[in-house]
Amino acid sequence: MVGFDAYDDVATFPPLRGAVADAADFADWALDSQGGGVDPADLKFLTHPAPAAEYTTPRLQAYLDGGQRWPAVESSVLQGLDRLLKEIDAIGEAAGREPNQEGRVFVYFAGHGFIRQTLSASEDPETCFALQNFQLNVAGRGVISCEQLKRHLIRRGVREVIIFFDACRTDSPAMTEQMPLGFNLKLSREHHDYRAAIVRASKPGRKAHEVVHGSHHRGAFSKSLMAGLRGVRNDQGGLTMRELITYVVTAMTADVAPRNQHPDWDCRPETDGFELFPPKAVASGEPALGEPCGGLAEFPVQVTFSTLPIAPLVVVNHRAESVARVDPPSLAFTVNLPIGSYALELEDDAHTVVTAFQHLGPEATYVQI
């Protein structure tokens, strides 16, 4: 868990007001046996400055007093950052050596971030987190790529990686250098049995906002994220990534209005197959933890064709289930769908796929064919 409100002068970033509070809140949830269930010995926590007393719960304070915390960042920032990178390497190795363990690793970043443009046209731009000693013109100095970190941990043997990224994703065209620690790695065929999710606070090119929460500030994404992790469960007492993201999308949209901020994500497996909390057996008359999710919120998808389709159309989800049908064919139509991955098929013998698309909500998704 990493949170930076303050950066070195060379980073030229303005100070933040909620990143440390956000990291402290996530760490408190992670330590909770009813939350992340992380053993204090396995929690790595780094902030600058140190969390104020108003952000520190008794559970987090007991952790901080127990000698598990990293070196005091205010007096030894660079030592702490070097240790962060070494710990990332060690976490992967330790998880890979535990064949009977779940092997889940949470990564939480709150602070400044950006999109790193790549030198290769075949590579997508990467979402990066800026550490406190970030320097734009020094290769790899104070930069961690979320995608490369995910691949690095998987190559080390981690079976499940969940990264929550609360930072801006504005463009940084000058950042084209490779990441440190050999993170610029590809996954081979042997790395297929894993689960991974990267949930980012904003869409590419957009800012992540802070909001007032009580007497202090919080990241709008983290505020909604923590409310969802702590308080939302489905009718079976479980929580899938899809249910969590749907809650965050709707709650955060209301928090930041009239500004716009919408999260995006990559999940393997798909969001409704990614269980954060499994269904929980609940005794008769005993309420499940948290509030029920209810029906998943639906947001509009607008589809337009340049020529009239030759057959009726079917929208299918990632499980190949039909969720909407358009008959007779039309040059334009709108359908409301939950967030997720979909394909548009012709209703013919071959189930010809016209296109596939991601529906992120809450804004309308536009599909042009």
Query: Helical segment tally?
Result: 6
* Fraction of helical residues: 10-25%
Low-confidence stretches at least 5 residues in length (pLDDT < 50)?
71-78, 176-182, 282-289
**Approximate strand percentage:** 25-35%
The sequence of SSEs as H and E is: EHEHHEEEEHEEEEEHEEHEEEEEEEEEE
Radius of gyration: 22 Å
Arithmetic mean of pLDDT: 80
CATH class of the largest domain: Alpha Beta
**What's the arrangement of strands in the largest beta sheet?**
2-1-3-7-9-14
Quick rundown:
This protein is of the alpha/beta class and 369 residues long. Helices cover 21% and strands 28% of the residues.
What does this structure look like?
The protein has 369 residues and is an alpha/beta fold. The protein has 2 domains: 291 residues, Rossmann fold (3-Layer(aba) Sandwich), CATH 3.40.50.1460; 70 residues, Sandwich (Immunoglobulin-like), CATH 2.60.40. Helix content is 21%, strand content 28%. It contains 6 helices and 23 strands. A 6-stranded mixed beta sheet has the order 2-1-3-7-9-14, sandwiched between helices. Strands 6-5-4-8 form a 4-stranded mixed beta sheet. Helix 3 crosses helix 4 and helix 5 crosses helix 6. The radius of gyration is 22 Å and the shape is globular. The two termini are 43 Å apart.
